[in-house]
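Researcher: Let's run the pair from yesterday's discussion. Sequence first, then tokens, for each.
Model: Starting with the first of the pair.
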Amino acid sequence: MADKSYKFLLDLRQKPGNNACADCGESDPEWTSWNLGVFLCEGCAGVHRSLGAHISKVKSIRLDKWEEDQLRLMESEGNIKCQEKYEQQVPPSYRRPCSTDVQVLKEQWIRAKYERLEFTNPEKQTYLSGRKEGYMWKRGKDNNKFQSRRFVLSETENTLKYYNKEDAKTPKATLKIDQINVTFVPDKIGNLNGLQITYDNEGSTRNLFLYTEEGKDIVDWYNAIRSAKLNILRVAFPGTDDEELISNLTRDFLKEGWLYKTGPNKGDAFKKRWFTLDNRKLMYYPDPLDPFPKGEVFLGYKNKGNAVREGVPPGFKTQGYPFTIKTPERNFVLSAEYEDEQSQWMEILKFVIEKPLTPQDSSTGGWTAGLHSK
């Protein structure tokens, strides 16, 4: 029976929609929620198991014993049918996670679908209200300690404010929602719910590092910002398709990690720096959690004197696995500790440089300013 069950389930998995995890899209899922009738990857199956058997009953297609009625239920349901039921009213601004996304996004997506039933009961989607107030732990700019701070988001004012004191009348800072980026950085912060907000502060990138105690809270903040930003951009640019607006609500960093960097002169020594590649902007820091970068490099198109080359220019010191970024202004000589790191950085940097600039890239004001230039 076990071999027959396995073959039966493998055949079922070949049906349209079933050959990828119902929640994150990972290919060739080996697990199921048999009462929901869906195929799942191992990671999402673990989240389903934490929901409790009253919501989701998890089985392996290979390792577990199957009853006939369970197989028939799997046959009658399937990923597409289940998604049509539990994803009826997913907001356009809500980020649907993929297999490579951070765990908190995937877990809260699953809990929103099956546990909280957010996408069949829109009144539960409180992050769409255009206003949100609450507390997040924020890393101090000077003392490097995380402290609880009150945040207030207002779509009507296009602002995200935070206050240093409970009874403060004046915010410590006021950010424009349509000018900020938000991305999850759990490893960098050392917290599963770690979030980074970046924005322009008088010509330099400013970083805020945040987290909340509960995963739901940080994902709600993330989606509240995305929802407010979408509505603000719809008003500002009524002729722009929703699809284009949504694709630019938030962006993840293309790559981060430690590299060694020299100065502009041939005799300069290598210094260890944390690098962040954010679209066409390459930033470097003495510490990954610094509020401002030590330097920022704009990576233009290849036909404007931008390039990435293995090795160092003549006369420069060398160490490890070096490579050079050429820009019209100057050369940036970098070095990776390992060969595979060098290859990864060179590959992604070449990918960026070989892409033609968009109107958004060409504008110093970011994506919304790029829309103005059309």
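Model: Moving on to the second of the pair.
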Amino acid sequence: MEGDKMINQRKKRSDATHNKAIILQTTTQLLAQGEDISEMNMAEIAKKAGVGVGTLYRHFESKSLLCQAMMDEKVHDMFDEMDTFLHQHQDATVRDKIYGILSIYLDLKEANFNVLNFIEKSNSQHQSMINIPFYEQLKDLIKDQFTSQQQTQDLEFKIKLMLNSFSSDFYYFAKHDQQLTKDQFLSRLLDIFIG
């Protein structure tokens, strides 16, 4: 009797893990096909994943959390790429290191603009880059570059102000209204904050 109960529990856990993987795989495929997940409701996402709406909500209580889960691996890979970049450019200037970090971040942002924009705006009433889940990790990585050169005056404020320039609304404005390339955007931004 106890053995049957344990088998049923393992099967339920296995099914739950499988369902979660199917949901993430489906939403990732939809995104790759150009679908705007932020425009879809949870019932549509559940239907496309072949699971019930209750199952979807059991794994992700909001579309924002679903989008964050979709981005987790990409964000992890982004930070790995940043670590590799910093290791390969240990002797670079603070400006060059921060340029490299932010360039890698913008690659992720441009490839996943709609999803990151949705996450930013879903996490708070404020439209600010600070609302992305990995903001603190990105801020700390940039802060480490400054503190290695003892450039610490108003550092926290400068970094927060600089990173808020990467909000989806402002970055969209810079790219489309001002028609700045990624490199022009980064260069102008760093001219202001680093010199």
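Researcher: Give me one sentence on the second I can quote.
Model: The chain is about 75% helix and 0% strand.
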